[in-house]
Specification:
Blueprint: H1 13-47, H2 50-65, H3 68-89, H4 100-126, H5 129-137, H6 142-172, H7 184-195, H8 198-227
Length: 236
Amino acid sequence: MLDLLQFGDSGWGDEILRGAGMTLVVAVLAYGIGLVLGSLSAAATLAGGLLLRGAAAVYTTVVRGVPALLVIWLLFFGGGSAATWAAGLFGFSGRVDLSPFVIGVLAVGLVSGAYAAEVIRGAVQAVPAGQLEAARALGMQRGLILRRILVPLALRYALPGLSNVWQMTLKDTSLIMVTGLAELMRVSFVASGSTRQPFLFYIAAAVIFMLLTTGSELLFHRAERRAARGVRRAGA
């Protein structure tokens, strides 16, 4: 059975490795989109007008309230029509089709952003108001306060939650197998059907996901320790 995982023409090792690479690429891009959407949504909630706060609330409530698979299906069947309509506004004619890769990145990114928005909003609200008041008393401008005070302090509070969002984003990539994109789960599904050895290939996929999530967790823990440098711990 293990011969089926070999590299070359006699095994599926090459395909599994490429699928794992595609999974990681989709996860990284979707997470980046999620951080941007989450930051904008959090900013709209905390400092925006009524219209922006309402739009942010609708986005986070709707996306977090429906299954991620449903978001993928909606983009899969309606994304092309929406893109065609948007292109028509700029004078482009003809049908615009979205590739499975684009659909997967956008769908997982939308879901990631909805959860990241709440993490970032909570982190910003956790920053002690006295820190910001002291900065204003010293005459610091808003942009300088944002760079030197708010963002570093909020990042320290946000990192544990953003770590969880990353883990969720990485695992949500498995759902985009329904679009036909050759990521890890899709390749495992095709290989298990071709060889009639589903247990072997799904175990291999599970091991790879565990390696990715464990490695990611170690990196986030290191980032948390770096962000907490100089912070006095309780009882110290």
